[in-house]
Specification:
Blueprint: E1 7-11, H1 14-29, E2 34-38, H2 45-55, E3 62-63, H3 71-89, E4 93-97, H4 101-112, E5 116-120, H5 132-143, E6 146-149, H6 152-160, E7 168-170, H7 174-186, H8 191-194, E8 202-206, H9 210-213, H10 216-229, E9 234-238, H11 241-249, H12 253-258, E10 262-265, H13 270-278, E11 282-285, H14 289-297, E12 301-303, H15 312-315, E13 319-321, H16 326-336, H17 354-366
Parallel strand pairs: 1-2, 1-4, 2-3, 4-5, 5-6, 6-7, 8-9, 8-11, 9-10, 11-12, 12-13
Helix pairs in contact: 1-2, 1-7, 1-17, 3-4, 4-5, 7-13, 10-16
Length: about 375
């Protein structure tokens, strides 16, 4: 492939937007020719538009529109479409982020076409291969040429898997760049006022993973914990479309709505969401990114999973892993709600300057 074509930045799902936006801005400032490609793995016109606007991203140069489907069918469709793009534009580098199917699919295509690949957020491991994201991480990191890690444990994981030290670059957490970029603007959000919320007097819940919302017993256990927690603290619950669909099919939605302290609402834009979490007392989640954001914001986080690919948020952050057992959730909530993390030291390079460090590595790698 060409050594002088554009850099293609790949996004596939909303968490990718936050990871690519600071890098896109940094490369643009340096005058680098780049194309923003959205595979459409997760796509809702209204929500995607809000996220792009909140993050200052332009509309994608290329939109594949692959939509949802099984892991195999979705990955295959992305590969077919992305191969056509690569043959047409002859990129000098493909930048993938995170661990979604788009990340894996575009990495496979670029590798077979001998196009250099940079993986932002390389080296993260949960140790749980039942999670499709873990498979995506392992395969992507085995093929990528430039491995950009958010924390030192990422470097250690990659070295233990046989990757060369020269390919590994500890650059920090780019999610935090987006968080810092939007924090000041989030003060202008009216979401707290619209929900009659007071700073520090409510919690936030987000759940979407199959282990929590595809299994009726697990989902019910989380709801039972909410019924206890909601007695003492209001919980804002921006419900994921898939979570809502399952709750309706499992006949659980009315039970959730009936919990006095739970405020059920639709998904929000990034600006409103940052306003919500940054002013909250505690966050309960099964998200990966929220474990990091709450650590930087020094807000207690209860993660409804038995493992995490971000262990630094447990060892050096505000995060606690509890799974989906009702008693464990309630116990962790009671313990975490009284903790004060204000003097905690944030992990190294989670400082809002990661995009610049990544751009430095990329510029050197494509020379």
């Amino acid at each position: 492939m060409s050594e002088c074509g554009p850099i293609i930045l790949v996004v596939g799902a909303r968490p990718n937007f936050m990871k690519i936006a600071p890098l896109y801005a940094e490369l643009k400032e340096r005058g680098v020719e780049q194309l923003l490609l959205h595979t459409g793995q997760h796509y809702d016109e209204k929500m995607s538009k809000v996220f792009f606007e909140d993050l200052g991203l332009p509309q994608p140069d290329i939109f594949l529109g692959v939509g949802s489907g099984t892991h195999a069918s979705q990955t295959a469709r992305i590969m077919v479409e992305f191969e056509t793009v690569c043959i047409q534009y002859k990129p000098r580098l493909v930048v993938v982020v995170g661990d979604v199917n788009s990340t894996l699919a575009c990495t496979l295509v670029a590798s077979k076409l001998h196009i250099k690949i940079a993986h932002v957020e390389a080296g993260l491991r949960s140790g749980d291969k039942r999670m499709p994201e873990e498979i995506n991480r392992i395969v992507t990191d085995s093929l990528a040429d430039i491995l950009l890690t958010p924390s030192i444990d990422g470097n250690e994981n990659l070295l233990s898997e046989g990757r060369s030290e020269k390919d590994i670059h500890f650059v920090g957490n780019i999610m935090i760049d987006s968080l810092y970029n939007i924090l000041e603007r989030s003060a202008n959000s009216e979401i707290l006022e619209s929900l009659s919320l007071t700073e520090g007097e409510y919690g936030v819940l987000t759940i979407h993973r199959p282990s929590n919302v595809d299994d009726v017993d697990a989902f019910t256990s989380i709801i039972e914990a909410l019924e206890v927690i909601g007695e003492g603290l209001d919980i804002v619950f921006p419900i994921h479309p898939r979570t809502k669909k399952n709750a309706i099919e499992m006949n659980l939605i009315e039970r959730i709505k009936s919990i006095p302290g739970v405020m059920l609402m639709g998904p929000t834009g990034y600006l409103d969401f940052v306003s919500l979490i940054s002013s909250s007392r505690i966050v309960l989640t099964d998200s990966g990114g929220l474990q990091e954001e709450t650590t930087v914001l020094k807000i207690p986080c209860i993660t409804l999973r038995n493992n995490t690919e971000r262990p630094i948020t447990v060892s050096d952050g505000t995060n606690r892993l509890v799974g989906n057992d009702k008693d464990e959730i309630v116990s962790a909530f009671k313990d975490s709600i009284i903790k004060d993390y204000r003097d905690m030291v944030v992990p190294q390079y989670w400082d809002g300057n990661t995009a610049a460090r990544i751009a430095d590595v990329i510029m050197e790698g494509i020379e």
